[in-house]
Amino acid sequence: MNSSTYTQHLRDLDKRHLWHPFTHMSLWLRDEPLVITEADGMYLIDSDGNRFLDGVSSLWCNVHGHRVKEIDDAINAQLKKVAHTTMLGLASEPAILLAEQLVSIAPGGLSRVFYSDSGATATEVAFKLAAQYWHNLGRPDKCEFVGFSDAYHGDTVGAMSVGRVDAFHRPYFPMLFKTIFAPPASQSGCINAIEKILHECADKIAAICIEPMVQGAGGMLIQPAGFLSELRRLASKFNVLLIADEVAVGFGRTGKMFACEHESVRPDILCVAKGISGGYLPLAATLATEQIFNAFLGEPWEGKTFFHGHTYTGNPLACAAALASLELMRRTNLVPRVAEKSLKLAAMLEELRGLPHVGEIRQKGFMVGIELVEDKATRSPFDPKRRIGAEVCSRVRKHGVIIRPLGDVIVMMPPLAMEVGDLAKIVRALLHELSLL
């Protein structure tokens, strides 16, 4: 079977059996999708041998590129020991060693690590920890949450409740628990709205949840300087926990190991996933302070235990990959290099600003959102039925680049180890196709 015949065979099987996430399946069934079969460094390779720069880090999680020897070797070495063992009632060597590493690099005071397997489960753990923390302290009334409009924390019930997005979650609204929403964190006046909410409702609020510095799925919305530190101050003042959802922004993505570091903020609970394993295997962690952990201590009959867990909690292969990734980040001085390269990326992106349909370019580190508009002067959007963002992302593939849109916001989220030449290739592809709109 030659490559084109095999490609078509795979496409036919895909269309017959698979249901893809966040995908308009009616369009998918009419299309001829790429089938990725290999990878090499910064490139994904399809079943016909075509190479594409991974401009979205395989959904924002790849750190060092693909087929990285150090991480491959770590996983292979762990395979020779044990692939998986439960953490329910047993300890695990890779999970222990990784927890020590996570605590050492996280904002000070976050001393306890609870593993799960995705960003949504990390935030779900955080919401349950926050609610039960107050319950264990004799304050079951403090069980509501404050979220932000245009926030996104995942697609489990708790994550949807605190980060509900109309386009994604409207059918499930009747299932969701009550959340008090503030305006988008990027808007002026948001911090005043938060203070008003806390002044009126702090006695029933368990926690505020924020994507620090950048609301990712909301369209790469950048928060103003000082917002996060002021939010921390208000949470402390009104005796409300602060949850930082760093699933997308953590592990160097913004030019700091964690986005909270930009304003020297220590949350009470920190959620991480995506880049934690270098983009290799499903892994997530929820970090909490010793103060929160202590509220769950007591005799079994006191009912303070955190009854939550996942089959693959602290999976040894994933933890081994994460340990190797962290070591590689240290050895290559990756995070400071992201900060340096992001300045060069910003200079490249300047060439796009003058294009007639580029309304705004938003960037923090290796997180870029290019907002497309029909009329630059009025900032009026394109008719969503035209799906301009999706069209542009489809067209750049002929330049050997894979990127994805958020509506009509083009997202560029390359692996953190991508060098300037490859970054330039992505920007040139975008410049060419956006110039044709």
Question: Could you write a compact summary of the structure shown?
Answer:
The protein is an alpha/beta fold. It has helices at 3-17, 25-30, 57-60, 69-79, 93-105, 119-136, 157-162, 166-169, 190-201, 227-237, 290-294, 316-331, 334-353, 388-395, 420-435; strands spanning 36-40, 43-46, 51-54, 110-116, 144-148, 179-182, 205-210, 214-215, 221-222, 241-245, 269-272, 284-289, 358-364, 367-372, 401-402, 404-406, 409-412.
How would you describe this structure to a colleague?
The protein is of the alpha/beta class. The chain has two domains: 132 residues, Aspartate Aminotransferase, domain 1; 261 residues, Type I PLP-dependent aspartate aminotransferase-like (Major domain) (Aspartate Aminotransferase, domain 2, 3-Layer(aba) Sandwich), CATH 3.40.640.10. Helix content is 38%, strand content 17%. It has 15 helices and 17 strands. The strands form four sheets. A seven-stranded mixed β-sheet has the order 4-12-11-10-7-5-6, with helices on both faces. Strands 1-2-3-15 form a four-stranded mixed β-sheet. Strands 13-14-17-16 form a four-stranded antiparallel β-sheet, with helices on one face. The longest helix is centred in the C-terminal third of the chain and has 20 residues. The protein is globular.
